[in-house]
From TrEMBL, chain A:
This is Uncharacterized protein LOC107471360. Keywords: Nucleus. Residues 496-620 form the TEX10-like TPR repeats domain. Its main location: nucleus. The gene is LOC107471360. One of its GO terms (cellular component) is nucleus. It is found in: Nucleus, Nucleolus; Nucleus, Nucleoplasm. InterPro entries: ARM-like, ARM-type_fold, Ipi1_N, TPR_TEX10. It comes from Arachis duranensis. Residues 144-205 form the Pre-rRNA-processing protein Ipi1 N-terminal domain. It comes from the Eukaryota. Belongs to the IPI1/TEX10 family. Transmembrane segments: none annotated.
From TrEMBL, chain B:
Signal peptide: none annotated. One of its GO terms (cellular component) is nuclear pre-replicative complex. This is Uncharacterized protein. WD repeats lie at residues 115-148, 168-211, 262-303. Keywords: Coiled coil, Repeat, WD repeat.
Length: 876, 444
């Protein structure tokens, strides 16, 4: 067209000169032309491959860059899109820095795929976000990322295609998991979307599975509401070590003030859920069996209602606490509306009972539904008072459930029924706290039954224990008010039953369920803390000590062989708790003290626990819970029977046990000093200790006994004449035994040897005794002197049977004892006052040396000579 | 003058020493007080709970600063162990062995309130910095915070399920000591217990902030005035330093948060106090010695020999002793001292509606009878108002008002006149001046 026009113009134009040009002839170049020719000798290509231009760039397996991949994500072919997503994942995995740099751009592009038509693509995208992108952005500006995604998620939620909607909820889940605080800002919109989707129930009538998916998402969102996740907060509370004391606390996410509008939204959802539940009910009553999917739907519907009701209760609580400033008068009306819907529609259906006989499995399912309805009912009952006849129906159901009479043949399925009961148990304390009545008695009886019957260590047991814990305060308050009420008597009975059950439970648990033991012990401790003198609770609490005996120590067989109870093997916290329980017993009797002592003597017990036991016993004594005689006899028992060399390692002392007994004695002595009235204490322990010392316990134990005497004795001694004589004979043997710990060729030069310090440790209490009573020293020296003289007559002594020439050893030991005593400056003075005793010993040694009765080798004779000489030099 | 006051649980009297000179003051006789049983009431006199070994019941004794003998003996309904007085010394709170807390008014000795606070005996009582809260620790291991507003608000306390503001139930054994920090509603509370732990609680949220495990039982704690650390005296004779500000640090072998320890006690540390002036830490020990430490260097500055028995209480007080008291004493009331009447045993059920409300001014040296009869004043005001309300009074008022009105109208007229005069004068002046200046220009 244009050409023809141009031609016609040419024809018309006379003014234009027609220029003819010859073909093939070049025009001469204009004069001002620039030469654009480039000349080079050679063309050099740095590389010749196809990927050359991507050198240094991050590429995935297929050699595509991020930019190309992102472009491909919007390709019209679903397969290409999917491949691109897979490629991105691969790329990001290989080059994390690439993601860091381009994450916002990538997310901005990728979010378009949330509403993708192809299921596989969406799935891949979900995968990509879940495994790579979101975890990689943890430290960044999470809010920005969430807001980038959220718009597209909401968009997808209103998509025409149902699948995309459901998938959008999945994405939502992912985002909430990634950054939970974001829920607060989007909650209203999220619930609005759920409401919309639930309204379209024509979709669901065909596909129960999809409804189930949607409901699952709703329930997840509901449980994200701050008041519905109380349990998780409790766990975090234990992590209190890292809190800064005076730091600024950001309390924004904690304050749920922003959620009041959400409660309004929930009010709209509740009737929808109830209606959809009602749609199912005819199928149950009519059909012979319950279809799995619809059962699942019903259960999740009920769960959803439950969570919503809980939110209402929470909202109501908050309103009552602070008169709301928003002041919405119709709020209460709405709540009434919902409760009336529940009352009219849901609760009359209860209990759901089949028209036909159902199989066992279906029966179980039905029970599940009933339980869920009951839970909703009790939840609502906390909030508003429901009609009493209805309440009675539900209470009866609860009682049956507790007694296990709900499902006849289904006893086998314990785990399931347990799970159901655990949900109902928390409502018992709430009901009880409203005051005693006919029904509390019945319920508590059923509760006691289930508490007894449940397996030790099971979750049900734990739930029972926490329920008892909750009931303590109301029951105690009721009991303290009036005692004439017959219901109160029942209350007391059940309380007594629980308290009596606790020690049995502890023994049953053994060391297999430390967590459960801990809960039980904590409960026991709390009961103990409340049990003040002469109240009925205190009597009940004191009764447990008989049963607790076996917890610390069990007697086995007729000969009374003692064996450690489960206490020893429990973790440290449990041990601590159980010891604290002992402190609150108003009187600790001898049997339990015996079993505790037996437990203390066990070699398995950690020394720190041993010291803690003694400490707590002493605290209990200071409170007057233990008689002084019992208290001291425990001390003596511990010292006397503590095995320094436990069985198995015969004869060989282990340093750990030695150290333990030493520090234990130090502790005991300091406590004995704290008791006050040393003379009195000495009076009590003197006879016992002297009696036991005569039985010649091992060296370490005797030393500790002596230390105890020394602690409470004074200068001059208060020991009786009789015991001094007994001690005199005993101590000589004790000193000789102690000195034998030294090596035979003991030398003055090695002053800091370990043996020397041990021997000195053994000797020290004797020094104190000698210092306080010179007569005792005289006696000891005399006995030693005669021992030396008689040593030739007793060829074999008790303690040194291993040595063939034991008399030599004995003389040697006596000599070193004298030397050691002489080394101490204070003892030196006292020694000088008992010259004749020392002299007689030396005399005896010299006579022994010269006696011909015993045959001696020259070497032996020389040794004795040496000793004799040294004694002489030192003592002169 | 800063005085260290110490008592023991076995009868050894109350020892007083000047903290800065070390001079021993008067030793007050016959006092055997359990831990937390010795207080100074507003610096005016000493009060202590007394457990006599012979009789089963306990009593509360008062001493004036100037006399060694017991001034006043009170016999409460049950044995009182811990005592606490608010800072001006107007009220005394006492914890009973059955778990009740008693609150007396010092000036009249009236028992204002008694309430069941704990399941078991109360072991320690502390008033908060602003005296509005009372914190109690008990043998049952709980620490409870009581608001005095709540305690005296009959209506609210009937409605409420519990009287306490917070109940901290973290301790497994008896609570041995409780201290509260500064910062009013946002303060921290530190409690020590026989379960070998100290716990730090938040007063505002009621949450457990910290749990510090020690290698021995802690019997006494004291906060550093700046709240950087607190000191904990243990039964093994050590004084542990525990950091409050730092985040969890393990700097020593003793455990988390424990920064260090120092010890010169062979026996257990039973009580701790902080000097009012100077950075001094004072510790009492089971061996009857009182040691004054430099809190920075942990060196002993001074030592007071108290007695053989264990020291159970230490207070640092600025006593209000004035020289005039000796002169006045001869003329003073029946007991011949400046002590208030004994604390009553039971609360009076019939309360006088026009009860006097005694107010003790902190600055007043002699605060014997400073009482404001506020209710009288109010009732007279009411009467006056009622009189005003009568018809005659209103007529009188009207007359008066009319009179006033006329007067003010006259005044207004006068003002108006004056204003007009002034206005005319001014206008005239201006015009004249204008003409003058014009004529001046013309002349030029």
């Amino acid at each position: 067209m244009t050409r023809s026009k141009a031609n016609s113009k040419k024809h018309r134009g006379v003014d234009f000169k027609k220029i003819r040009r010859k073909i093939g002839k070049k025009l001469p170049p204009p004069k001002n032309a620039t030469n654009t020719e480039i000349k080079s000798k050679a063309i050099v290509l740095p590389e010749q491959s196809v990927a050359a231009d991507k050198a240094g760039l991050a590429v995935n397996k297929k050699g595509l860059t991020l930019k190309e991949l992102l472009q491909q994500t919007s390709h019209h072919n679903a397969k290409v899109r999917r491949d691109a997503l897979v490629g991105i994942k691969d790329l990001f995995n290989k080059f994390p820095t690439e993601m860091k740099l381009h994450k916002y751009a990538a997310i901005e592009k990728l979010r378009e795929r949330i509403g993708d038509d192809d299921k596989v693509v969406r799935k891949t995208l979900y995968d990509l976000f879940k495994s790579v992108i979101l975890p990689g952005c943890k430290e960044d500006n999470q809010e920005l990322i969430v807001s980038l995604l959220m718009a597209y998620i909401f968009n997808a939620m209103t998509h025409f295609s149902f699948d995309i909607r459901i998938m959008a909820f999945d994405f939502l889940d992912l985002v909430l998991l990634f950054y939970p605080p974001s829920f607060a800002s989007f909650a209203e919109k999220i619930f609005q979307n759920y409401e919309d989707i639930l309204r379209k129930n024509q979709y669901f009538s065909q596909d129960r599975g999809k409804l189930k998916d949607a409901l699952a998402g709703l329930i997840r969102c509901l449980s994200l509401l701050p008041w519905n996740k109380g349990e998780t907060n409790l766990v975090n509370k234990n992590e209190n070590g890292r809190i800064l004391l005076h730091a600024f606390h950001d309390d924004m996410p904690r304050s749920p003030n922003g959620f009041s509008h959400i409660i309004k939204k929930l009010r709209d959802i509740a009737p929808l859920l109830i209606n959809s539940f009602l749609e199912f009910t005819p199928s149950i009553t009519a059909m012979a069996s319950i279809e799995g999917k619809s059962f699942g739907c019903m259960l999740s519907i009920l769960h959803g209602i439950d969570l919503i009701i809980r939110s209402f209760v929470y909202g109501a609580d908050k309103d009552s606490e602070s008169p709301s400033m928003e002041g919405e008068p119709n709020g209460a009306m709405w709540d009434v509306k919902i409760s009336s819907i529940l009352l009219k529609k849901l609760f009359p259906l209860f209990p759901l009972s089949p028209a036909h006989h159902l199989s066992e499995k279906d029966n179980n399912r039905l029970v599940d539904l009933n339980m869920a309805v009951a839970k909703i009912f009790f939840e609502l009952n906390e909030w508003i008072c429901l009609p009493p006849d209805l309440l009675e129906k539900f209470l009866e159901f609860m009682e049956h459930a507790l007694l296990g009479q709900v499902c006849e043949g289904a006893r086998s399925d314990n785990a399931v029924s347990e799970k159901r009961l655990i949900q109902l148990l928390p409502f018992i304390p709430k009901f009880v706290s409203r005051g005693a009545s006919y029904w509390t008695t019945r319920l508590l009886q059923a509760f006691t039954y289930i508490f007894r019957e449940s397996k030790p260590g099971s979750l049900l047991k734990l739930a029972c224990l926490s329920a008892i814990e909750d009931m303590l305060t109301p029951i105690q308050a009721m009991l303290s008010l009036e005692t004439s009420n017959p219901e109160n008597l029942k209350l007391q009975e059940s309380l007594m039953a629980w308290i009596a059950e606790l020690p049995l439970l502890l023994i049953q648990l053994g060391d297999n369920h430390p967590a459960c033991s801990e809960v039980a012990l904590r409960l026991q401790l709390h009961i103990g803390q409340r049990a003040f003198s002469n109240s009925s609770l205190a009597c009940m609490y004191d009764d447990i000590q008989d049963k607790l005996q076996n917890f610390y120590c069990t007697c086995q067989g007729e000969e009374g062989k003692k064996c450690c109870g489960s206490f020893v093997r429990l973790p440290r916290e449990c041990q601590e708790l159980s010891l604290c329980c002992l402190y609150y017993l108003s009187h600790l009797d001898l049997p339990i003290l015996k079993s505790i002592a037996c437990c203390c003597l066990s070699p398995e017990l950690d020394p720190s626990v041993l010291f803690r036991i003694i400490e707590i016993l002493h605290s209990a004594y200071r409170e007057g819970h233990i008689k002084i005689a019992d208290h001291l006899s425990i001390f003596i028992t511990l010292v006397l029977h503590f095995k320094v060399s436990p069985e198995g390692s015969s004869g060989l002392k282990s340093d750990i046990f030695c150290q333990t007994i030493k520090s234990m004695t130090t502790l005991l002595c300091s406590y004995m000093a704290q008791i006050g009235g040393n003379y009195l204490v000495l009076n009590i322990i003197e006879k016992v200790i002297i009696d036991h010392i005569l039985l010649k316990p091992p060296l370490d134990n005797s030393c500790c006994l002596l230390r105890m005497i020394v602690t409470v004795d004074s200068k001059p001694t208060r020991l009786s004449e009789q015991s001094i004589i007994t001690l005199g004979t005993y101590l000589s043997q004790y000193l000789i035994d102690a000195a034998q710990c030294l090596p035979e060729d003991y030398d003055e030069q090695c002053k800091s040897s370990t043996q020397l310090t041990t021997v000195h440790y053994y000797l020290l209490p004797c020094f104190f005794l000698f210092d306080r009573c010179h007569k005792l020293l005289n006696l000891v020296l005399k006995t030693m002197g005669s021992a030396v003289a008689e040593s030739s007559l007793w060829p074999i002594s008790d303690n040194c049977t291993r040595h063939p020439n034991n008399w030599l050893v004995r003389v040697n030991a006596v000599a070193s004892v004298l030397l050691l005593i002489n080394k101490d400056p204070k003892m030196q003075q006292i020694m000088s006052s008992c010259k004749e005793g020392v002299d007689s010993i030396i005399q005896n040694v010299s006579s022994l040396q010269s006696s011909e009765k015993i045959s001696m080798t020259i070497e032996e004779r020389h040794k004795i000579k040496c000793r004799y000489d040294r004694l002489k030099i030192l003592l002169r | 003058m800063e005085v260290v006051v110490a008592s023991s649980s076995v009868d050894a009297g109350i020892g007083c020493w000047d903290l800065h000179t070390g001079a021993e003051q008067l030793r007050h006789k016959s006092c055997s007080s359990p831990p937390h049983g010795l207080i100074s009431v507003g610096g005016r006199f000493l009060a202590s709970s007394h457990l006599s070994p012979l009789s089963s019941g306990g009593s509360v004794l008062f001493w004036s600063w100037s006399k060694p003998q017991v001034g006043v003996r009170c016999f409460p309904a049950e044995t009182i162990k811990p005592l606490s007085a608010n800072h001006p010394g107007t009220y005394i709170a006492g914890g009973g062995v059955s778990g009740g807390i008693y609150l007396w008014e010092v000036e009249t000795g009236r028992l204002l309130k008694k309430w069941n606070a704990h399941y078991r005996a109360v072991t320690c009582l502390v008033f908060s910095e602003d005296d509005s809260l009372l914190i109690s620790g008990s043998e049952d291991g709980s620490v409870r915070v009581w608001s005095l507003f709540m305690i005296f608000d009959d209506l609210r306390s009937q409605e409420a399920t519990h009287l306490y503001e917070h109940s901290f139930t973290g301790h497994a054994l008896r609570v041995t000591d409780v201290v509260i920090g500064y910062g009013c509603s946002n303060a921290i509370i530190v409690s020590a217990s026989e379960d070998r732990t100290c716990k730090v609680w938040s007063l505002s949220t009621g949450a457990l902030l910290r749990n510090i495990v020690f290698p021995a039982i802690i019997d006494a704690i004291v906060l550093d005035p700046a709240e950087h650390v607190f000191y904990a005296g243990s039964r093994d004779g050590k004084i542990f330093i525990v950091a409050l500000h730092t985040e969890s640090l393990v700097t020593s072998n003793d455990g988390m948060h424990i920064v260090g320890s120092f010890s010169n006690h062979s026996k257990s540390v039973t009580c701790l106090a902080y000097g009012i002036s100077g950075n001094l830490l004072i510790s009492g020990s089971e061996d009857g010695m009182i040691r004054v430490w430099n809190a920075r260097t942990h060196n002993i500055v001074r030592m007071f020999k108290y007695a053989k028995g264990p020291v159970s209480n230490i207070c640092v007080v600025r006593p209000e002793i004035d020289s005039t008291s000796h002169i006045l004493q001869s003329s003073s009331r029946k007991q011949g001292s400046d002590l208030p009447p004994p604390l009553e045993k039971y609360a009076n059920s019939v309360e006088d509606s026009d009860a006097k409300t005694p107010i003790v001014l902190c600055g007043a040296k002699r605060c014997a009878k400073v009482s404001y009869l506020s209710s009288h004043a109010i009732s007279s005001h009411v009467k006056e108002l009622q009189r005003h309300g009568s018809a005659a009074a209103s007529e009188l008022e009207m007359e008066k008002l009319k009179d006033d009105y006329q007067k003010s109208m006259q005044m207004v007229n006068q003002w108006k006149k004056m204003y007009e005069n002034l206005h005319q004068f001014c206008v005239k002046e201006l015009l004249d001046g204008g003409q003058a200046s014009v004529s001046d220009e013309n002349n030029k």
